[in-house]
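MODEL INPUT / OUTPUT PAIR
PAIR INDEX: 1
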Amino acid sequence: MLAIKIQNLSFSYANAKNILDNVNLTVNSGEKLALIGPNGAGKSTLLLHLNGILRGDGKIAIFEDELCNSNIKKIRKTVGLVFQDPNNQLFCPTVYDDVAFGPLHFDWQKNKFDQVVKQALINTDTSHLSQRAPHHLSVGERRRASIATVIACEPKILIFDEPTANLDPRHKRELIEFIKKGSRTMIIATHDLELAKHTCTTAALMDKGKIVFVDSIEAILNNKELLDKHLL
């Protein structure tokens, strides 16, 4: 079953044309796909379309439900997005409050609520930070806390935008293990080709607003000519 189907998606900002230029991409359920490409390729803009934060011309279907105004809440519960800047996701007085914010809006019994919040903190090694104010944390700590806020909502699709930025080697290894063990559908936009190699089975190479190549992660990472051409 397809988890994501993008058809003929185009998007321009007011001051920048063709940030996305007729993008077509499919992602199977359970697949882990690395979205790679140089700066300015359109990767972050594409991710912001997958749960309706941005809306361009074209079609996006999530588990066969076409994204539209009537199902946007369902789509946003299904697609969890970890932003490139963790400050965009942390706005509560404490890390615990931020991680609990999403689950509070779900019709969950208290025992499940407590369990998923606790587990999200454990999985991101942020339990000891739970009563800290996010703005007092390091950038790496804030990044881990922002990941916890998303996985606590148990989305079926998990999307990361540069997840290893500012992570120290230990926490990068732990993130790699978390992604490898996870059964969710994942898209990971990254410049970190080591992360992509160890976590993903497929890669989509994006440049100048287009998906220019899709293949196995091994085939793309072993294609030096292709990587050099697209500044990777």
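PAIR INDEX: 2
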Amino acid sequence: MMGLMFFGALFLYVLLCLLLAWLASWVAARCGVAGWKAGLPVFIGLLLLVFWDWLPMEVTFRYDCAKYAGFTQYQTLEAWKRENPGVAETLVPIKNPRSERHGDVERYVLNQRFAWEIRHTPHWFHIQEQDERIVDMKTAKVLARYVDFSTDILGLELGYSARGISDYKIWMKKQSCEVGQRMPEKIKFNGYKGKIEDIGRG
């Protein structure tokens, strides 16, 4: 329902832009100038007041998703065990790990050796990067990584309060690079993390 209201308001705004462009065109024609020379700039200028960041966001978001997003496994758990013989047998999973802050990193310690780290990095045009990693805390080595992108546009239809005018730009809302794909890359990362969490469980 809320979405229909926003799209209705958007439709009315476009109609207003067309009306004002027509008015500018009519005035220009009365003054002996080609109407489109006044109407077109007015129409484009009014649209850009609201939509100026939409196209750059779409281009940047699609580029970031294509180039940087997805799951990367740097080392299998089996290879790590071969590098660290006997260590896995000493690890005990931490039940319900708590979130810890280390600068801009949110960390969940999974056992005495591994942590799950999450970084959120803002980019241009409301895009934000989510970088999740499985890290060997002793060596700081990253064993697996998942990168995804979204926009910081809130879903006002879910009852959130707007922080600014950008939150009304629901056409710019992006939840993930994998929306509509059942998130196979995220599933791969979660599977890897699940193996780490299972170390030491009977």
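PAIR 2 NOTE: The chain has five helices and six strands.
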